[in-house]
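pls read this protein.

:::
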Amino acid sequence: MMKNKKIISHNKGIVTKQKYWWWFFFVMVSVPAFHTYFKQDNKPNLTGIVVLEKRPELNKENWFSGYYQKQTDDYHNDHWAWKETMVRWNNQFYYNFFNEIRVNGFVAIKDNYVISKSYILSVYGDDFIGEEKIKEKCRKARVIQDSLKKKGIDLVFLIIPGKGRFCEEKIPDKYKHSVKHTNYDTYLKYIQQYQINCLDLQSWFLNRLKRNQPYPLFAQFAHHWTNYAECLAIDTIIRYLEKLKQKPFSHIVWDNIEVSDTPRSRDADILKSMNLAIHPPFKEKYAYPDYGYEVDSSLQKQKVLVIGDSYWYGPVYMGINKYVFGDGQFWYYYNKVVPSPKQGEKVEVWQLDLKTAIEDNSAIILAYSDGNLPTFGSGFIEDAYLLYTNPIKFQEYWINKQAIQQYARQIRETPEYLKQATIFSQENKITLDSAIIYLSYQLKNGKNVLN
C-alpha cells in the first residue's frame, strides 16, 4: 500500500509540473497580445517595410468582398507590439549564422560587404538584354542627339560605376562564370559606332582611381558610391561639360578632408534597411571633403537636366543641380521630378509638356549605373525619339501614358495598394516598378486587381 501511495504522489507531481508549463506557455503567448492592446503606438520603426497606416473601413462592400478581413489581418500583423523587436532579431540571426541579409534583392559577399544582386549579374552578363536592343537604343539616341544639337542642346550618356564590377574580387565563387557579353561592353561598342557623347566614369574608376585612392570609393554597407567618390565624380563631370559646351561652369572645391571611423550620409544606406538588432563593426576609414562651389557672378548658368537612377541623388543632395546646373531638374528614373516645379506637390514627368521641359535646358544627361543598364533611360530615349520623329503619334501615345501613370501614382501613394504591389513583385520575381505598371494596365482595363 505504501508503494502505491508513492506512485500516486509521483504522478501528481508530474501533473503539477505540466500545469505550470501550460501556465508559462499561456503567459508567453498572452503578453504580446496584452502589450499590443495597451500600447498606443505600435507602428514598427523599420526601414524598407511597407505598413498599413490605419485600419480598413468597415462597410457592407468591404465586408462581403473579403477586403475588410484581409486588410485587418495585414494591419494587425504590421502593428503588433513586438514586431520590430522580432524582425530585428530574426534578421540578426540570419546575418550572424548564415551571412544572409533580409533586404530584398541584396546579398552579403566577402569582407562584410553587401551588394545588390543586380550588380553581380551585370558583371557576368546575366542581365544582358541583347545586342540588337542596345544597338537600336543607341541609334535612336543618336537621332535625338542630332535633333537637340540643332537647338543648342547636348545629349550625354553618363555611365556610373557599379559596386559589382568595382568590388569583383569580393564576389563569392558561386556567382562567377565565364563572360560572353555584358550590357556595359555592348553599350560602349555602339556608343562609339554612333558617336554619342559619353562620359564613362566606370572605366575611370576601375582603371585609374581604384589603385591609388587612399579612401573607399564604395563602402561596406552602402549601395551607392561614397561621398568622397561623389566629390571626385562631380569634379570630372563638370570638366567634361566645360569641354563639350565650350563654356565655363562653377567648380566644386575643397581644402580639407575629414576622416571618420563611422559612415555618414549614404555611406551605410543598406545597413539601415538590414534592420538588425546590433550593428556590425565598421572596418574602414571614411573620407568627407569639406566641399563648396565657386561663386562667379560673371558666369552664365548652363541649365542641365539629369535623368537617372538613385546614384544621382548623392550629387543632388550635394547641390550640383542648384549651384552648377542652373537649377536644372533631376528626373528620377524618368518619373519623379526633383525639385518639384509646384511647391508642396509631387510632380511626375508624365504631367509635363515633354517637349518644353526638354528644350528648356542646355544639356541633358542620362546618368545610369552599371547595374541599371538593362533599363537605360527608363523610356526617355523611346519617348524623345517618337517626339522628334513623329509628333502626331507622340501626342496620342502621351495621352494614353498619362492615363496609365495616374493609376500608377495612386498605387505608389496608397499604402495598402503599394504593399500589394510589393508582394506581387516578389511573388513574380519582377521589379516593383514593373509590378506597378502591370497592375496599372489592369486597372485601366477595368480589372479590380487590388482588392
About this structure: The radius of gyration is 27 Å. The chain has two domains: 124-389, 391-451.
